[in-house]
């Protein structure tokens, strides 16, 4: 938790510094885009990997997994990425997909499925990663 908070704080400092130098709102885009990418990673994990337990807090998300829900999530996340950061936002979102799949594959092999804790960890990891990727892509 301390590492995640430290990484978020450091990224937010870099982003705010870039904003103070640039003065445009575009420099703040990673702050708004990171939660979108984090939550989208959870949708991806839920869609593609089985749940590890018979019951649990995350199991109610898995009662039905229509592909239409995934398509809607992709369209919403892509739209938000485009509005917030243009092509750079779409690149960040596109890179998060294979990364989320690798993350899910690792835990799926280890536990024969994913749990709500793994979904939550994925959200946190991909949110911090998106913040830092956004820092690296700042103008």
Report the major sheet. none
Radius of gyration: 16 Å
Query: Percent of residues in helical segments?
Result: over 70%
Helix count, DSSP H or I runs of 4 or more residues: 4
Taking the alpha carbons of the first and last residues, their distance comes to 30 Å
Strand portion:
under 5%
Structural class from helices and strands?
mainly alpha
**Element-level helix/strand string:** HHHH
Residue ranges: pLDDT <50 for 5 or more in a row?
A: none
What is the mean predicted local confidence, pLDDT? 88
Counted beta strands: 0
Shape: globular
Quick structural gist:
With 139 residues, the protein is mainly α. It has 4 helices and no strands. The protein starts with a helix and ends with a helix.
Written overview of the protein:
The chain is globular, with a radius of gyration of 16 Å. It is mainly alpha-helical and 139 residues long. Helices cover 77% and strands 0% of the residues. The longest helix has 45 residues, at 67-111.
């Amino acid at each position: 938790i301390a590492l995640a908070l430290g990484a978020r704080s450091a990224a937010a400092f870099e982003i705010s510094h870039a904003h103070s130098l640039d003065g445009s709102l575009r420099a703040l885009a990673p702050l708004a885009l990171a939660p979108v990418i984090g939550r989208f990673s959870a949708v991806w994990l839920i869609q593609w990997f089985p749940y590890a337990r018979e019951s649990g807090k995350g199991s109610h998300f898995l009662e039905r997994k229509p592909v239409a829900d995934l398509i809607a999530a992709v369209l919403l996340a892509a739209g938000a990425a485009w509005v917030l950061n243009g092509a750079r936002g779409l690149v960040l979102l596109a890179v998060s997909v294979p990364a989320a799949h690798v993350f899910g594959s690792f835990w799926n092999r280890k536990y024969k499925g994913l749990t709500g804790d793994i979904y939550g960890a994925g959200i946190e990891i991909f949110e911090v990663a998106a913040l830092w990727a956004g820092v690296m892509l700042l103008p």
